[in-house]
Amino acid sequence: MTIRVLLADDQALIRAGYRMILDSEPDIEIVGEAIDGREAVSLARSARADVVLMDIRMPGVDGLEATRRIAADDDLAGVRILVLTTFENDDNVMLAVRAGASGFLGKNVGSEELIHAVRVVAAGDAMLSPKAARGLFSHLRSQPETPTATPVSLETLTDRERELVVLVARGLSNDEIAERLVLSPLTVKTHVNRAMTKLGVRDRAQLVVVAYQSGLVLAPDVVRGTAAPHLPRLE
To answer: Which residues contact 169 (CB under 8 A, 6 or more apart)?
Structure first.
């Protein structure tokens, strides 16, 4: 299956770099280029994109607003947003995840990591750079907000779904959860998808936010390895 990618960045040189990297992959096709957020939303629909590489700072409609519009459009429910920006600060990470982004990387990302990220978000998973993951958890720890998931919505979860949401929020991959609970990875993915549907979240990045802000799980105190536990890829 070919992944259809739309490039949204106001700098032609940046778009050309992304195109050169991604066009070399047999399973990735560049289907359009947008110079601002308004054009990105329009092309996401007309070009039937699977993934949009979205810059944040663009003239007119910026990348965050474009992400919100795409995420809110039922006709674009299958479109995944991968934000690439020079500014990996806490607020941008949180705003991007809240807007509906499935991934957040710095523009200094390497070629292999960029290709991997496109495949990850196209598959419905989430991808955060190590710095973005740390920023997200820092924000959740230091700025408690109104819970995203109400007690009523949490009550719709089965005991198993609640257990899996906690493990996802702690950074475990599907394979790790399956091994720990002696389940198949497919069973884990099914339960997690059902939990996301019940809680009204778009992907696993937003599921992590809901888990912390609802009080279902506390933000981790440490970040190990290359990012908060396995958060570069939330399978």
So the answer is: 207, 208, 211, 212, 216, 217
